[in-house]
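PROTEIN DESIGN WORKSHEET
SECTION A - STRUCTURE
LENGTH: 302
TOKENS:
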């Protein structure tokens, strides 16, 4: 536990720096969004492209995205079939109830990447991204459709498909995996650019995390129920997967932390885009991220 604390100290300090910049240097949530877009479009694809070609891909690791998709499917059922009807029955406003359900469905797997990087290095980061592939498939198809069905101005299927197909991390994953399968290396000039860009992923994510956290919101039934289902049930699902499939090392860490990850940023993105309850989504994120700062290091130690 002592070594884990030492490994995670830079993670906590960088997140704290982001919070200090928010409180005292005039940076706000819009800066966090800019950093996340930079990660999504530049540094994360570079990380995948520079690390995947040399990674030893085993059947156990290939199982990660499948388990992520199953976990996301379970979360979808909990949100849409359990939490949403319960909140509506209690008289909760429909936009708020739908936003709470989205919070259960969307895991913030980008949140756990810095912790994985601190404990397992570049391998942990890369395999965390591979895990997230299965999660992303469910979020950008099934979960996104859930949000669209409750929107005032829904997007067409073609627009959704094009948006997913052009995600830079998917291309970084595809190219890096292709080089791995073909036993090829990234050309040295490209590696010299991709490697330092990829190394920026963790610091940028941590600064973004610190900039995103607001003061702890007051407890309310919809908020508490959404977090309990997203993170509490996630722990149970992760432990079940880890024991049934006898996962160890980095794979076990990814499954435990990934299944019980805090509520994802896409909850706010989807709620804002489709005129649900964006204010409630922001409160969900803040409370869940603060809890995740405590729970994720503990899960990595299980």
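SECTION B - SEQUENCE
RESIDUE ASSIGNMENT:
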């Amino acid at each position: 536990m002592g070594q884990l604390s030492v490994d995670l100290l830079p993670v906590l300090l960088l997140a704290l720096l982001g919070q200090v910049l928010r409180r005292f240097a005039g940076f706000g949530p819009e800066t966090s969004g800019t950093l996340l877009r930079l990660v999504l479009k530049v540094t994360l694809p570079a990380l995948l492209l520079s690390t995947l070609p040399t990674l030893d891909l085993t059947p156990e690791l290939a199982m990660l995205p499948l388990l992520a998709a199953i976990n996301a499917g379970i979360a979808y059922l909990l949100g849409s079939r359990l939490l949403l009807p319960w909140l509506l029955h209690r008289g909760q406003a429909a936009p708020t109830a739908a936003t709470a359900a989205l919070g259960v469905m969307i895991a913030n797997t980008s949140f756990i990447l810095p912790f994985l990087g601190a404990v397992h290095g570049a391998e942990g980061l890369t395999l965390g991204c591979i895990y997230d592939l299965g999660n992303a498939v469910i979020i950008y198809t099934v979960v996104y459709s859930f949000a669209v069905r409750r929107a005032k101005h829904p997007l067409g299927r073609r627009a959704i498909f094009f948006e997913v197909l052009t995600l830079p991390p998917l291309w970084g994953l595809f190219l890096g995996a292709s080089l791995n399968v073909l036993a090829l290396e990234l050309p040295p000039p490209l590696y010299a650019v991709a490697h330092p860009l990829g190394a920026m992923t963790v610091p940028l994510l941590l600064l973004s995390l610190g900039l995103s956290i607001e003061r702890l919101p007051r407890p309310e039934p919809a908020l508490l129920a959404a977090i309990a289902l997203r993170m509490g049930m996630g722990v149970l699902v992760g432990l079940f997967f880890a024991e049934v499939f006898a996962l160890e090392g980095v794979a076990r860490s990814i499954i435990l932390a990934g299944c019980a990850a805090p509520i994802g940023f896409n909850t706010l993105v989807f709620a804002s885009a489709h005129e649900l309850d964006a204010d409630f989504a922001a409160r969900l994120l803040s409370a869940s991220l603060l809890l995740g700062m405590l729970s994720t290091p503990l899960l990595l130690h299980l």
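SECTION C - NOTES
The domain at 2-301 is CATH 1.20.1530.20 (Na+/H+ antiporter like fold).
The CA atoms of residues 78 and 104 lie 7 Å apart.
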